[in-house]
Amino acid sequence: MRIGIYDPYLDDLGGGEKYMMTAAQCLSTKHDVTVFWDEKRDLVKLKNRFSLDLESISIEKNIFSNKVSFLERLSQSMRYDAIFFLSDGSIPFVLSKKLFLHLQQPLVNFNQRSLKGRVKALRVSGIFCNSQFTKSFNEKRFNIRTVVIYPPVNLLLKKVYKKNIILTVGRFRVANVKNEDYKKQRTMVNVFMNMVDKGLHEWKFVVATSVHDANDIKFKEMMEIAKGYPIEFLINKNNTQLWEMYNKAKIYWHASGFGEDLEKHPEYAEHFGISTVEAMGAGAVPVVINAGGQREIVTHGENGLLWNSLDELSDMTNELIIDANFWKKLSDSAKMRAKDFGTGKFCSAIEELLK
C-alpha cells in the first residue's frame, strides 16, 4: 500500500511527533510510506532526537501547506491508499482511499456538526487516540469509530548505579499556549527548593527540557530562581543523552495540569505521558499528578504514586527517600509496567487500522 503521513507540528520535536514518525517507521516495513513536509532537516532532527529509523521513508511536498492549492491537494492525495493525519480537530478534504485521524489531546471547544463538517467526516475511516483520557473527550464530538493506541516506548536501558536524583522531562513552553508554566517545571522547582530549605540534602533535581528561542527569556528566569540549589537543567539533549539520566534517576516527577481547571481545560493535563513510561522502564519511581493520562499508566502504591497536592508530592517523595525497601518494590513494579507500552504492540495496532 502507498501511505501518506502528515503532522503539522513536525518541527516541534514533541511527543506527538515521535508518535507519528514511529508510526511511519512501523508502516515502512511493509508499505511505501511518504511524509508530507517541506524541510528535510526537520526529519533529521526528529531522527536524531528520538533515535528513529526513517531511512525507508520518502519526503515529499507538503500538500497540506497553504501554498498548495485545493485542487493540487486533491490530485496528489488520490495517489495514496491511506493518509494518516495528526489533527487539531480539522478534517482535510482528500481523495485517498482511506483517511485516519490521530488526536493527541482533548478538543473541548470543537464539534463537527456543521454540514461541511459532517460531509468531511464521511471520508474518515477511523480515529486513533493516544489514551483513554483523550478518547473520552473526543469520540462523541466526531461520532466516528475511535480506538486507543498507546504511544510506543523504546527502552534504552543501561546498568548503572542509581543516584539520588529526582528527574522531570518535558518541553518548556510559553509561546502559543495560554499558560506560563505549561509543564509545571517552575512549580516543581519551587517544591524541590522548599524541600531543600526544610532539610533535604544529598539529592539533586534534574529538569530535562527542550527550549525554543521564543521561550528563552522565561526559561532563564526560572534558572535564575534555582541558583544556589542542587538543581540541574539539561537542555535540548538527544535521546541517548536523555536515557543516561533516566538510568541514573531514582524518582520521576510530573505535574502537568496542577492548579488548572481541568473540566474547562483538560488539554492542560498530560494526555498520556511517554516520559513517565520511559522513566519507569529505567526503574525510576513515578510520583506524578493524579490527572490525565498519568492515571492510565500508574497504579498508586503498586508501581508508583499519584498525588493531588504539592504537599502530597513532597511527602510521597520523602517517603521514598526514607524507605529504601518501599522504593525498591515500586521500582521493580514500574519496570514491569513499562513493558506494556512496547513498540511491537504499537506497530501491530497501527497496522491493524489498515484492515
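^ that was protein a. below is b, sequence first then the C-alpha cells
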Amino acid sequence: MAGSDTLTIELEVCRELPPPLPRARPKVPPIPQKRRRRRARPATLPPGQRIGAWRVDYELGRGGMAAVYAVTHNGFGKRAALKLCHTSILKTDFAATTFLREARIVHLVDHPGVPDVFATGTLDGRPYLAMERLTGETLGHMLDRAPIAHSEAIEIAIELCDVLAAAHRAGVVHRDLKLDNVFVLDRVGEGGRRTKLFDWGVARILGEDDPMHGMLAGTLTYVAPEQIRTQAVTAAADVYSLGVLAYQMLFGQPPFASQSDRELLQKHLFEPPPPPSTLWHNVPDELAAILVAMLAKDPADRPSLREVERVLRTTLRQLRPQRESWLRTTTRKRLISATVGIACVIAAALAMFGA
C-alpha cells in the first residue's frame, strides 16, 4: 500500500532541475512550492459493512491512495485484505481502471513474493482489489521497533532481488520500492520466503502507455535520478531504490535525507552517498562497493540484480560463521551464568540447613 508520504510532482516542476555538469556542482533553482489543501480524512468503513461479496472486519491501514481492510467472504468465509481506493484521487488522469491495473500487473509478475489479487469491484464508484491477507508487519514497522541483524537485512534484500528480477523479466518496473511496501511474514511462507512486495499500482509496464506519464510516481526518499528528470524508467530504477532500502536496513538511515523536498531531490541528483565504511566500520569491501554502485547517478553505471544478489549471497556466507560464533559464545556465557547461579543457590541452601 502506498504510504502517505508518496508525492506527485508535476513534470514542469521537475524540468527546472538541470543535468549535472562535469567537475562542477550545478545549482538547482528553487522548486515552486504549491499550496496544499488540507483534505478531510476519508471515513473508515464500520465493521460489518458489505462490499460486494465481502464483509468488513476492521481497518488494516491506509495511505495516500487507498485504505486496506480485513474482510471475510459472505459465502464461504475466506479471509482477505481489501484495498479500497480513496474518492479524492479519482480524476480524469487517474480513473478506476488505473487503480485496478495493479491486479493485471500482479498476475503478469506471477511470483510468490507478490501478494495474490483474486477479485476486483467497486463501492459507490470507488474501485477495490481483494487480495490475500497476510500476518506479519511492514519492514518499516519492523525497523521502528529495533534495528535488525546485518545477516537478516541481507536475507531480505536477497528475496527482494528475486521478486524484482521476476518483475523485470515480465517487463514490469515497480518504481515505488520502500520500507512500507515490503511486508515481512511472521512465519516462513511458500518456498521458504519471508517477504512480500506490495503496491504495484504505480508500476511501469515496459512497451505500454504509462498512466503516470508526466508525473514523478514514487516516494522521494527512494526515487532514482532518472525518475526526477522524467527520463525513461527502466529496471535500473528499481536497483537504485533497492540500494536506498539496503542502506536503511544495514545502517539505520537512508543515504539521502532532508526536510526540504527540493534539497532531497538535489541530493539524489548530485551528491554521492555516504561511504558504507563510515556507517559500519568493518563492512565487507565487496558489499560496500556494490551498495555505492547501486546508487550511481547514471542508470548505465548500476549493477544488474544478478550481480547484486551474488554479492549479497557471498556476504551472507561470510557473516554466518561470525553470527554462529557469536551465538555459541553467548550461549556458553549464559550456561556459565546459569550454572554459577544454581551453585550459589545450592550452597546457600546447604549453609541454611547445616546451620
